[in-house]
Amino acid sequence: MTDVLTEDPGRAPQRLDGPDKVAGTARYAFEQPVDGPRYLHLVQAGIARGRVTGTDTSAAEALPGVHTVLTHENAEKVNAGGELAVLQSPEVAFRGQVIGAVLAETPEIAAQAAGLVEVTYERHPHESTFGVDDHRAQSPDTSSPMVTEDLDQGDVDAALEAAEYTVDVTYATPPEHNNPMEPHATVAVWEDGELTLYDSNQGPYVVRDVLVPIFGLDPERVHVVSPHVGGGFGSKGMPHAHVVATVMAARLTPGRPVKCALTRAQMFPLVGYRPPGFQRVRLGTDATGRLVATEHSALEQSSRLAEYAEQSAGASRDMYVSPNRRITNRVVALDVPVPTWMRAPGEAGGMYALESAVDEMAQACGMDPIEFRVHNEPDTAPTSGRPFSSRNLVTCLRRGAERFGWAERDPRPGVRREGDWLVGTGVAAASFPSFTIPGSVATVGYADGYYRVEIAASDIGTGARTALTQIAAEALEVPLSAVRLHLGSTAQPKASLAGGSSGTASWGTAIVQAARAFRAEHGEHPPEGAETTTKSEPDPEAGKYAMNAYGAQFAEVRVHADTGEVRVPRLLGVFAAGRIVNARTARSQFAGGMTMGLSMALHEHGVVDGRFGHVVNNDFAGYHIAAHADVGSVEVDWIDEHDPHVNPMGTKGIGEVGIVGVAAAIGNAAHHATGVRVRELPLTPEKFLTDG
Amino acid sequence: MKPFDYERADDTDGAIATVSDDPTATYLGGGTNLVDHMKLGVAEPGKLVDITKLPYDFVETLPDGRVSVGATVRNSELAASHVIRQSYPVLAQALLAGASGQLRNLATTGGNLVQRTRCAYFQDPSTPCNKREPGSGCSALEGWNRHHAILGASEHCVATHPSDMAVALAALDATVVVRGSNGQRRIPVTELHRLPGDEPERDTVLEHGELITSVELPAPSVSARSTYRKVRERASYAFALVSVAAVMEVDEGTVRDARIALGGVAHKPWRAEAAERELRGTPATEENFRRAAEAELEQAESLRDNAFKIPMTRNTLCAVLRELTREDRA
Ligand SMILES: Cc1cc2nc3c(=O)[nH]c(=O)nc-3n(C[C@H](O)[C@H](O)[C@H](O)COP(=O)(O)OP(=O)(O)OC[C@H]3O[C@@H](n4cnc5c(N)ncnc54)[C@H](O)[C@@H]3O)c2cc1C
Ligand code: SF4
């Protein structure tokens, strides 16, 4: 069945849920039809730190159609911490925190009543901004599985001292907000002691497993249903406060479901964001341009309510050779909302800094930036010494260079002008780890001439439904049309979340193993009703290899000579990401990631007003995301990569590597265009304007 | 959002009487600005009088050559109108540079003129703002003021007017025709909007209940060339950082007439009179353009985040002048 997986986008299967989505019949969380719902609207703190001293809910409660106003005074006590300890105390930890919720007959009444709740506060001084050399910087809690220890190999200071060429540069990145197309929404139904949640998330079992201890529930009696999810980019990886509030509210109205959808403005403080940060990169090379020292120190915002430590400096661990290396991640905890994962957390920001610094380093050495990277390509993973399961960065760079026309490039910055525009080109590398998470369970059954495959995977718009159906068809050696895949619900067996670009690899592995077991048990001609369930085994090769996807990002940038406006007519990304399951949806994933990278480079910026402690541009007129007119030609290419080690399919994650390196490629190209090196995202016009 | 009454007006006098008599009543055009404000709690009208069915959906050439644009003509229709594209390209370009296709399909001529500032604090009732709540203070003065004014601001308010269309109308010397309970009056568009002074809550000189019925454009000049240049970081669907509308008449390398308005720099479309004076009667040279721009910007004052607007305005103005005079110089 080699035609099930094809590299040819024209022949790759179309999205199985495409027609439903286009016709509007694919139902997202808030649209799930339930009987007689009530609606919940959240009340948010108007101060950044302090405590609620009084809540006058009388006007809100007097409004016809209002059922209940929940506050910390009447909410049930639950077993939760951090942002999920909703309405558990009068303390306010950040502006915009949930301090109440109104349950009413219509969303309009709920919203109106929320505005009528009068809150008085005791204000405490707050801190919501920080600086590059902040004295409050601290080491993150390294016992968290998401946090790695500092790395200090060799003698960085001595190596820098002795280096022939050096750069010492600091890059700044702003808060960025995930802002998936579908706002966070949840519908909670309590019936006969059973809780059903129609929720927009990146993993139904994650939601269940988080809620069970909070409310002290029997996991078997909690059902999370999420057939379609309109994007998450990390912000739906874990449930947020509104889910807890909705479950609480639903408990008060047995038999009446409760619907809650966040407004766009509420999403800014309530569903996480990429924390702002400063990254200092110091590099040194010998006379040939070979790196002798790499230091990457990141300082990023966290929240006093709960720590989130972005691992940006980790981007420099295994990228290039360097006998001396120091990697540190620090955080500053502030009175701000809790940050979270946002597409390629760590890599997106970290590789922006590293790959920009590498461009500066190449220039300092008088080398072409591609040749510089090739010259510094490691044979094995530098920090662990492990072999790479596969690493085709150089192939990506070479292929991209050829396709982009790099050979004709004049390296001098600031010398090309076409009409009113200064023109430049830039390159950056991309890397993202390949995770295959063991332990997902898949069921394969046979009835009525169809193979039924069940796994609680999530299709957050990636095309997972389609790719997993293909993987199942291939593993079972049947046509695509013979497979019926069910995902997106705790009605299916447990699966890992859609995060870290691990979905296809982890769920696909579970499906392949279940399919093989099914065939072993039931043969080529299974009896009606045959069924096999297995749990995916850890990859025996895990730990033996360094496993990453790679890419090379190229950008053409134009900067207006009079106004500083920055436009990107062309992006090219060439990726090495293992086997591509579905060329059509893969292309869309890569191009989407690159577009998000363009948006990160040019536009995205949550502006924090330190006096109030909140993001002031909290709508789409203020928080800019690339519009169609900003996106020129986005070319996606990949190399034929066979990696026998990563998992049985040979796939690597493709969801996140696409965004990595784009901002650096664009910044490098903007420098090539203008001669101005901007070290702060986003690359807005004023940063290129000279007052001459 | 607070509940409100809705009425669809079918005669002008009735609509004016309804709004004039009720201090909580207001006109509803396309609703693209007002309804947002109602959702945000910035505006809480008790009654909306929908004027989009009143007979102001026309673009007509008057016998004397002037063009009259009805107040309810949608921005997209106006931009597509033949006479506008033909004779007032600066206006068509300004309209098309604004908002998005969907918004332009709803937005009306009257509503576009009277739309309110996009200052983030104005739009957020949880922060102080003199324009929204007189006397509460101006959060932008020492806050996020990247989009704020460099000309004509006051210590009470540093907001900018967001309209692109109004900037073009200012350069065209358009006149706004207004009706109220005391009859009709005509206001040059350059005098419709106010500077904030110590009454930032008043955007325009309109009295409560006054209805814009049309906008009149002077007869087009055959020898004039005009254009609109909007500078913004996002290539579409973004408000201007700065914009320039210019109508120029150049004869044998000498500027005969220059009418220039700037957007994104002040509480109103800013007619660049100092620059115009510098330009009139002088050779169309780069040096003179720059001198004119600098004359205009002499009074400019920047805030924490918007100093860039001074060179950006200067450069954009010079670029526009260069473009409009290019052939004539050749
Ligand atoms: C996301 C977004 C982006 C935008 N981008 C741009 C942009 O780039 N450039 C730009 O110029 N604009 C932009 N706009 C603003 C848009 O142009 C205005 O919202 C629109 O022009 C308002 O027209 P309306 O008919 O919808 O007004 P409404 O919302 O109906 O009314 C606005 C105000 O005008 C009053 N009013 C309406 N008609 C009359 C009348 N005839 N007489 C007296 N008072 C009247 C109303 O009472 C109300 O106070 C944007 C808007 C949004 C939401
Ligand atoms: S600039 Fe004007 S609109 Fe903005 S906060 Fe100040 S007073 Fe309000």
Put the structure in a nutshell.
With 692 residues, chain A is an alpha+beta fold.
Question: What keyword list fits this structure?
Answer:
heterodimer; A: alpha+beta; Aldehyde Oxidoreductase, domain 3; Aldehyde Oxidoreductase, domain 4; 3 domains; disordered N terminus; B: 330 residues; alpha+beta; Uridine Diphospho-n-acetylenolpyruvylglucosamine Reductase, domain 2; Enolase-like, domain 1; 4-stranded antiparallel β-sheet; binds flavin-adenine dinucleotide; binds iron/sulfur cluster
Strand order of the largest sheet of chain B: 4-5-8-6-7
CATH superfamily of the domain at 225-325 in chain B: CO dehydrogenase flavoprotein, C-terminal domain
Count of individual beta strands of chain B: 12
* Greatest interface and its participating residue counts: A-B, 37 and 33 residues
Bound heterogens, unique: flavin-adenine dinucleotide, iron/sulfur cluster
Question: Can you walk through the features of this model?
Answer:
The complex is a heterodimer of chains A (692) and B (330). Chain A has 692 residues and is an alpha+beta fold. Chain A folds into three domains: 18-28 and 437-535, Aldehyde oxidase/xanthine dehydrogenase, molybdopterin binding domain (Aldehyde Oxidoreductase, domain 4, 2-Layer Sandwich), CATH 3.30.365.10; 32-125 and 181-231 and 237-270, Aldehyde Oxidoreductase, domain 3 (Alpha-Beta Complex); 151-175 and 274-435 and 544-688, 2-Layer Sandwich (Aldehyde Oxidoreductase, domain 4). Helices cover 23% and strands 25% of the residues of chain A. In chain A, helix 11 runs parallel beside helix 12. The relative contact order of chain A is 0.13. In chain A, strands 3-5-1-12-9-10-11 form a seven-stranded mixed β-sheet. In chain A, strands 16, 17, 18, 23, 24 and 27 form a six-stranded mixed β-sheet that branches. A five-stranded mixed β-sheet of chain A has the order 7-15-14-13-8, sandwiched between helices. In chain B, the strands form three sheets. Chain B has a five-stranded antiparallel β-sheet with strand order 4-5-8-6-7. In chain B, strand 11 (254-263) and strand 12 (270-271) form a beta hairpin. Among the domains of chain B are: 5-50, Uridine Diphospho-n-acetylenolpyruvylglucosamine Reductase, domain 2 (2-Layer Sandwich); 225-325, CO dehydrogenase flavoprotein, C-terminal domain (Enolase-like, domain 1), CATH 3.30.390.50. The N and C termini of chain B lie far apart (59 Å). By secondary structure, chain B is of the alpha+beta class. At the A-B interface, helix 3 of A face helix 12 of B. Flavin-adenine dinucleotide is lined by residues 26-34, 36, 51, 71, 98-99, 103, 106-108, 110-112, 114-115, 162-165, 211-212, 239 of chain B.
